[in-house]
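dumping this here before i forget
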Amino acid sequence: MNKDSWIGRFAIQHSLAITFICVALCFGGVYAAFKIPSSVFPQTNFPRVVILVDNGVMPADEMMATITRPIEEAMKDIPGAVSVRSNTGRGSAEINVFFNWQVSMIQSELYVNSRLSQIRSTLPQTASTTVWRLTFSAFPIIGVSLTSPQRSITELWETARYELKPRLLRIPGVARVDLVGGRTPEFHTVVDPVRLQSANLSLAQVTDALEKNNLISPTGMHEENDTLYLAVVDGRVHNIEDIENLTVLVANRHPVHIQDFARVERGPEPVFNVVTAEGKTAVLLNIRSQSDGSTLDIAKALQKVLQELKRELPPDMKTAYYYDQSLFVRASVDSVWDAIGFGLILSVFILYFFLKNWGITFTAILVIPVTVLITLLAMEAVGLSFNLMTLGGIAAAIGLVIDDAIVVVEAISVKLASGLRRREAVQAGLGEIIVPIVGSTLTPVVVFIPLAFLEGISGVFFRALALTMVVALLTSLVLAVTLTPSLAVWLTRRRGRD
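structure:
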């Protein structure tokens, strides 16, 4: 008997324990399959922070001198910063801060915000800044359009803003819902120049009156019945009548109201782009996922919400998808299951055709689902998600996974055909092929492991692929020398004998 047959003896003596452990890991893999988030690409933090600045219609050269350059100089000394690039135009600027791949991007984003707060007093008061840490979740995963052949674009915006957006934000995993298109409703004060001049007023006075009177402010404290109340004056306007009756000036003890020299009408804000969907003007809702959100779970919950809204919205309003990343993820998941199913069916036919033994055939093909489930459990443990790279790695590993089991069962089948009993056949067969099977499995493992240490964008993608394939291959090797011999003792028999 081969000197390495101790591995076979170990698998036979502890077959119940090995089987129990494998079954437990399979249940863990099933649980992980429902918990692992899904996305198109692997989750990563790109070493880049984007600062967006808006300052009305300030000329580009003045924007460069007073805003862009001070921000660039403040960002360059942040730990880990490699370079700073900017793009400045009229009233807007985009500053990109690039870091090395070793820094923590969450901490780097906090550094950027800290530097902005330090120089905020030196920037124009009218400038507003927004900071984004660049990740795949910064891009929308699903886009929904709202259209109507009868409603105005303002009504569509109000429906999207006050009815659809709050409902979508309640979906678990959704980070933001951005509105694109539509026109925000507002009140327009159309001044008659002749009447304005006759009232001895200027446009600046009208604007100042609208800004200062349309507010709410505290006036003091009031104590009554052992209770302290905060007294406030609410001068906010809520409709056209409130604006028309707003007092701009008191001249000769006679108040001058807005309606004395202007008319107030409700209208949309000025816009400079037109958004359409299905040939009609529309409001688009871009749904962005949290960094650990699951695209498939969000899409499933969104479908339910849209079905509910369909019953609640007016019949002429229609919601539809114009972009859906979950289709790519779902297609990738389906392709993996197709690969698993095709591999199982093909393995059954080929193994039984050559070995003519259902026990050995079942022993070999069982390793595929067990390996996949254990791989899913490992993915959950290290924080990987279902994406194009991990699912592609599982699909590509299916053919390599079955190889180890086939080699083991074929060696056992040869020993059975030579007349050995089942236990002796398992020990002798496994002892003969243990060294070649370990070498043949470690060869692709050695090829894929370096991919896990790549840096940059290529490292982000290939790391997930490499880790998935390496785990699947090593799992198949362990199962081939433990679970497969254990099952072979129970399920195989010599031809013509029990």
